[in-house]
Amino acid sequence: MTINQALEPAIRVLGIEKSFKDLHVLRGVDLEVKVGSIFALLGSNGAGKTTLVKILSTLLKADAGTATVHGIDVAANPGGVREAISLTGQFAAVDEVLTGRENLLLIARLRHLANPGEIADELLNRFSLTEAGDRPASKYSGGMRRRLDIAMSLIGSPPIIFLDEPTTGLDPQARIEVWQTVKQLADGGTTVLLTTQYLDEAEQLADRIAILHQGTIIQNGTLAELKRLLPAATVEYVEKQPSLEDVFLALVGGDAAGGTAPAGRELT
Ligand SMILES: Nc1ncnc2c1ncn2[C@@H]1O[C@H](COP(=O)(O)OP(=O)(O)OP(=O)(O)O)[C@@H](O)[C@H]1O
Ligand SMILES: [Mg+2]
């Protein structure tokens, strides 16, 4: 990494717009993600989370605005961006017929790495899949499959990883396992941008949380900053802090299609 990249944010998004025919999905999205941090993009179904992730991972082109990932412009040098990232999509990329180990070997070979066997074994161990490594992925639980999916995306050690709804459809125990994995990644210096509809997931994991609503980021801050947007509720002598869910519902009006952000109290 150059000095320049160390100072720059891992991801910088400025004025990104994207429409699908008449549907104006992204209407000027701005955000920055610090190197080594976990950034959660929160939004209702259809808010445009996957669309933004696809633009940042060079699978889609924006209509307007600029974005750099690892200091590289996504439009000018998509190949350079692809070398710096991995994407774990909303739907798992695991091959069900292959074993966990074979899935990892396949990706390591596709990436022309010198020691695919060692890489596969190290990842199986890191994701607590060693015992299951020789079983077909079709026999894995949802949480194991997700962990394998994330392990596959780490082959080649990309500095930036996109996780699009990493725990959708998982049971609470499997979600916690994936959360631990994501925390370990960030502790190791990887920058993580994840999308989620689960407010507790953002609350548990993220250093910063941005709320995407009606095409723009309507709030962006730390959990503490977002919670300060609402006054603390009090019940007799017990003070209750608003949860992120309270903040989210107040901001989007409890109605994904029709709510608007309250005026004022913008975070900087
Ligand atoms: N290729 C496409 N062609 C037309 N419309 C699209 C396309 N991709 C996405 N859309 C529309 O853009 C909007 C945003 O979709 P997107 O998948 O980004 O939402 P999301 O926030 O990821 O939702 P979810 O939480 O359901 O995953 C939706 O209305 C979707 O139908
Ligand atoms: Mg999505």
List the strand order in the largest sheet: 6-7-8-3-9-10
| Count of spatially separate domains | 1
Overall geometry comes to globular
Q: Do you know the CATH architecture?
A: 3-Layer(aba) Sandwich
CATH topology: the name is Rossmann fold
Q: Tell me the fraction of residues in β-strands, as a range.
A: 25-35%
Short description:
With 268 residues, this protein is of the alpha/beta class. Helix content is 34%, strand content 25%.
List keywords for this structure.
268 residues, binds adenosine-5'-triphosphate, six-stranded mixed beta sheet, Rossmann fold, binds magnesium ion, alpha/beta
Task: Please provide a written account of the structure.
- With 268 residues, the protein is α/β, with parallel strands linked by helices.
- It has a single domain, classed as Rossmann fold (3-Layer(aba) Sandwich), CATH 3.40.50.300.
- Helix content is 34%, strand content 25%.
- The protein is built from 10 helices and 12 strands.
- Strands 6-7-8-3-9-10 form a 6-stranded mixed beta sheet, with helices on both faces.
- Strand 4 and strand 5 form a beta hairpin.
- Helix 4 packs across helix 5 (116-126) and helix 6 runs parallel beside helix 7.
- It is globular and about 55 Å long.
- The relative contact order is 0.15.
- The structure holds adenosine-5'-triphosphate and magnesium ion.
- Magnesium ion (MG) is lined by residues 49-50, 90, 164-165.
